[in-house]
Automatic annotation (TrEMBL):
Fe cation binds at E17, E50, H53, E94, Q127. It comes from candidate division WOR-3 bacterium JGI_Cruoil_03_44_89. This is Ferritin. The chain crosses the membrane at residues 21-44. It catalyses: 4 Fe(2+) + O2 + 6 H2O = 4 iron(III) oxide-hydroxide + 12 H(+).
Length: 171
């Protein structure tokens, strides 16, 4: 059973996760436009991952007898200065999501909602990986600098990323 406050906050995070998917789909489209198909693949896999995150919130709200309420999506950015700019914006966004997850945990604790607290722990761990992946790619892009060959090599590496669906339950 979800309290009204917790339900509203989980619905807001459902929207945040769908927005994340939308943002990465936009980055994938931009990558294709500038000829970086590997980057496009990486962001499209990220889009798929974010939709599974959204579905975890969707299923959890339903499983707890709550009401899913979908909201409007903000327009994502469609232009970027460079691949580095895209990943810096990705990291910035993931830091925002980490903050949102931490605030949800704080709320679950203050509401004494143990089930939601346990559900959220998967996301606490996931955010470490999300930020770590972005930091790794940013470090590589900084090393590459203006080197076109380096960029094409990284593009090849990012082309190998494959979507692996996470477990469907909250843990
Ligand atoms: Fe759902 O982790 Fe990124 O946003």
């Amino acid at each position: 059973m979800l309290g009204e406050k917790m339900q509203d906050a989980l619905n807001k995070q459902l929207n945040n996760e769908i927005y994340s998917a939308y943002l990465y789909m936009s980055m994938s489209a931009y990558s294709t436009f500038i000829g970086l198909k590997g980057f496009a693949n990486w962001f499209m896999v990220q889009y798929q991952e974010e939709m599974t995150h959204a579905m975890k919130f969707y299923d959890y709200i339903n499983d707890q007898g709550g009401q899913v309420r979908l909201m409007a999506l903000a327009q994502p950015m469609t232009e970027f200065e460079s691949p580095l700019d895209m990943f810096e914006k990705t990291l910035e966004h993931e830091k925002f999501i980490t903050k949102c997850i931490n605030e949800l945990v704080d709320l679950a604790i203050s509401e004494k909602d143990h089930a939601t607290n346990i559900f959220l722990q998967w996301f606490v761990t996931e955010q470490i990986e999300e930020e770590g992946n972005d930091n790794d790619i940013i470090a590589k892009l900084k090393l590459i600098g203006d080197n076109g060959n380096g960029l094409l090599m990284l593009d090849k590496e990012l082309a190998t990323r494959v979507f692996t669906p996470p477990p469907t339950s909250g843990n």
